[in-house]
Specification:
mainly alpha, three-stranded antiparallel β-sheet, 3 strands, about 5% strand, FtsW/RodA, membrane
């Protein structure tokens, strides 16, 4: 597409960006359009909307998402840091407002209205935090930057607990611990942190009734939640090759077939083999990202890219595990496949920053 001697912004971007990772993300987006197109009409009909309502909005959101991903991917590491700081300031402020002024949905206040459009600030704070903590850790050798980074991460976790959003707390906390480990955290501290995290999980179980009910339902073999039961029926009825596009039955009884349980809807209509392709695609992107992190020669790039790629992999893992009843239910989308507005845009920004950080010879000092 571009000559190797082309020194324009686009030319330089084309020859330095990881085109394998870019292609994989594009494939996920295409698969998402196909699956949402098949899974969303029954949900729209249940809500009294036109059958094409969700797929139309999904495609419309893909356009700015693609623009945001490209815009972030052309940045130098210094630009990624500035973008992360800006996102942390803007959406961090919204995160402070959410528990007080956000709309209450299922007992939590995670959404805030911006110009009449619902927005989940935590989705944007998540990638920004990975970049900011990486910068704070990379400014000094070893773990001397840990106190400042811990202060920022702790503040975000505290705000998430106020909503409450324990699933996001788990992802943010785990990703931060992975960054600390990459930065040089000893194994003994990792073990202690894991014990403390287990204690925190028990306290959350005792403090939040909705968490307690979800965990009890998950642990009780005689009780399965309505959505999980329908999701498992959808997976089982699809078999190896699925019922065929538009032929699903369980999706009519699955309220979140286009969002949280889109993986189960895909299994019913396209089969287990198709879902294995999705899993393989996510796994290949995760491994590709880890490999590029391993090749990075800059400490900030290494830590920030580690956080971003781990966030991406953990979100996909949690969504698929919930669909297969391997962990308690958690409202979390499947990256670039589930229908979603703020989630799609935040993921696009996060992956755009990852593409920027994994470009050839990316260094913060340059």
């Amino acid at each position: 597409m571009f000559s190797r001697t082309d020194r324009s912004i686009l030319g330089d971007w084309w020859w330095t960006v990881d085109r394998t990772m870019l292609t994989g993300l594009g494939m996920l987006a295409v698969l998402g359009v196909i699956i949402v197109f098949a899974a969303s009409p029954p949900v729209a009909a249940t809500l009294g909307l036109d059958g094409s309502f969700f797929i139309t909005k999904h495609v419309i959101f893909l356009l700015p998402a693609a623009a945001l991903m490209f815009g972030a991917s052309v940045l130098a590491p210094r630009g990624v840091l500035r973008l992360g700081l800006l996102m942390m300031a803007l959406f961090g402020f919204m995160l402070v407002l959410a528990p007080f002024f956000g709309a209450e949905i299922k007992g939590a206040r995670r959404w805030i209205s911006v110009a009449g459009t619902p927005l989940q600030p935590s989705e944007f704070v998540k990638p920004a935090l990975a970049v900011v903590t990486a910068w704070l850790l990379s400014r000094r050798q070893g773990l001397w930057g840990m106190p400042e980074s811990l202060l920022v991460a702790g503040a975000v976790i505290g705000l998430l607990l106020m909503q409450p959003d324990l699933g996001m707390v788990a992802i943010v906390g785990l990703v931060y611990m992975i960054q600390l480990f990459v930065a040089g955290l000893p194994w003994i501290v990792v073990v202690v942190a894991a014990v403390l995290a287990a204690g925190g999980a028990f306290l959350a179980y005792e403090a939040f009734p909705h968490v307690q009910s979800r965990v009890d339902m998950f642990l009780d073999p005689e009780t399965v939640g309505y959505q999980v039961e329908k999701a498992l029926r959808a997976v089982a009825s699809g078999g190896l090759f699925g019922r065929g596009p538009g032929e699903g039955v369980e999706k009519f009884l699955l309220p979140d077939a286009h969002t949280d349980f889109v993986f189960a809807a895909a299994a019913e209509e396209f089969g287990i083999f198709f879902c294995l392709i999705i899993v393989a695609l996510f796994l290949s992107l995760l491994l590709r990202g880890i490999w590029r992190v391993h090749e990075a020669g800059d400490r900030f790039v290494q830590l920030a890219a580690t956080g971003l790629v781990c966030q991406f992999g953990l979100q996909a893992l949690i969504n698929m595990a919930v669909n297969l009843n391997l962990m308690p239910t958690k409202g979390m989308t499947l990256p670039f496949i589930s229908y979603g507005g703020s989630s799609m845009l935040a993921l696009a920004l996060g992956m755009g920053m990852l593409l920027a950080l994994t470009r050839r010879n990316a260094r913060l000092e340059s």
